Amino acid sequence: MSIATTATTRITLLVLYTGRMEECRAFYSALGIEFVQEQHGSGPQHYAAVLPDGTVFELYPATAKRRTGAVRLGFNLDGTTVTPPLEPGRHLLTDPDGRTVEVHAT
Known about the structure:
Elements: E1 13-18, H1 21-30, E2 36-38, E3 46-50, E4 56-61, E5 72-77, E6 89-94, E7 100-105
Parallel strand pairs: 1-4, 5-7
Antiparallel strand pairs: 2-3, 3-4, 6-7
């Protein structure tokens, strides 16, 4: 199986819905992601971060219409900047909602 790549296509937005807002914010913050709390108009309060490549990563509260779901995420990061520090290499972590988070630490 080969994976096709397109130089002009990239992810610009990733939204995770969670019933554990603070726990998920703490988990992803420990990976070095800096969130700010936002609210657009009368919408729900949520957390947003802009990753180094410009991708917007947001945590929204789950609702009956937008429940948490199975998603697998992957991040490349400096393992010395996370809490606790990670040894170089591949690590499979689990966030508070049970999602697998693959971290490649340098």
